[in-house]
Amino acid sequence: MVGVSGADLPRAIDPDVLRPRLPSPLQEVADERFARHGVRLLLKRDDLIHPELIGNKWRKLVPNLAAAGGRTVLTFGGAYSNHLRATAAAGRLLGLPTVGVVRGHELADRPLNPSLARCAADGMRLHFVDRSAYRRKDEPETRAALLRATACEEAYVVPEGGSNALAVRGCTALGEELRGHADVVALACGTGGTLAGLAAGLSPGQRALGVPVLRGGFLGAEIRALQDAAFGGPRGEWSLDERFHFGGYARTPPGLDAFAADFGRRHGLPVERLYVAKSLYGLVSLVEEGAFPRGTTVAAVVTGRPDVS
Ligand SMILES: *Cc1c(COP(=O)(O)O)cnc(C)c1O
């Protein structure tokens, strides 16, 4: 199976519960910052796939939920992780037990922030660990101790951010849906799992352009490793532009907020700040730098939407 579509939802999952809107809508929008340079802009509305498993989280989680086969799903995240929230929501919808291992032991003694409160309300059991244990969570001994401490030795483990080989293969459908529609596909990257799959699904001549929202310049190697794990080698044409992280994860300076609010007003969609705003800002900057020849069609993937809670 390449990619996941509504038609081939894994049988273990009740299709009425997680039925997605796929392919996600593709909308052309008029934006003079692009038109002035002879560039067409399309929005790939992955934010509309599912009301609770939003955007790329649906594409990445569903193949893993199927593989879990009814076992408890254990995964990892920071205090504001979209991935933890999506996993918790999926657990509630499917009646699957979920456990979230959260970075930051000190959080255990404080009232839950809205993101973690939502996870808990969805039935996710939260387990807080200190930052050094969290950093070592993928090392065998730390992992084994964690699974013992949470009584989860039998659980199905999804890595931080949800990006494993199944998740990456789930995202190839996003590329396939864009075949024939755009020359360049731009998106925000956290773990890079979505980009790794998307690039593999595009047709020759199309390319993916990733905007990392974390600082560090390590993401290229991780995307290559994810493609190795998912496909046995490199796939598709892709590149990263590392200039638009705005200081790092969850940093959203006022200039970025203003940009996002303005983009949302122009085009009538809510712009999520941690990821989507940075990718759109990067895209507008690239167009204004003349990075795309006239006649180019660019699709921006709207990978998520702001919290509605
Ligand atoms: C999780 C998330 C991403 C990052 O996806 P990766 O596959 O980790 O690169 C991008 N955008 C939004 C809105 C997200 O929630």
Essential attributes:
309 residues; alpha/beta; Rossmann fold; 6-stranded mixed β-sheet; 38% helix; 15% strand; binds pyridoxal-5'-phosphate
Describe this structure in words.
This protein is of the alpha/beta class. It has two domains: 6-55 and 163-308, Rossmann fold, CATH 3.40.50.1100; 72-154, Rossmann fold (3-Layer(aba) Sandwich). It has helices at residues 15-18, 32-35, 56-68, 82-94, 114-121, 131-135, 140-149, 165-170, 172-177, 193-201, 219-231, 254-267, 276-288; strands spanning 26-29, 40-44, 73-77, 98-103, 125-129, 156-157, 184-189, 207-212, 238-240, 297-301. The chain has a six-stranded mixed sheet with strand order 1-2-10-7-8-9, sandwiched between helices. Strand 7, helix 10 (193-201) and strand 8 form a beta-alpha-beta unit. Helix 4 runs parallel beside helix 5 (114-121) and helix 10 crosses helix 11 (219-231). The radius of gyration is 19 Å and the shape is globular. The model has no long low-confidence stretch (mean pLDDT 93). The structure holds pyridoxal-5'-phosphate (PLP). The site of pyridoxal-5'-phosphate (PLP) has 18 residues, from helix 4, strand 7 and helix 10.
Q: What is the highest CATH level, the class of the largest domain?
A: Alpha Beta
Order of helices and strands: HEHEHEHEHEHHEHHEHEHEHHE
In DSSP terms (H or I, runs of 4 or more residues), the helix count works out at: 13
**Major sheet: order of its strands?**
1-2-10-7-8-9
Set out the fold topology.
Layout: H1 15-18, E1 26-29, H2 32-35, E2 40-44, H3 56-68, E3 73-77, H4 82-94, E4 98-103, H5 114-121, E5 125-129, H6 131-135, H7 140-149, E6 156-157, H8 165-170, H9 172-177, E7 184-189, H10 193-201, E8 207-212, H11 219-231, E9 238-240, H12 254-267, H13 276-288, E10 297-301
Parallel strand pairs: 2-10, 3-4, 3-6, 4-5, 7-8, 7-10, 8-9
Antiparallel strand pairs: 1-2
Helix pairs in contact: 3-4, 4-5, 10-11, 12-13
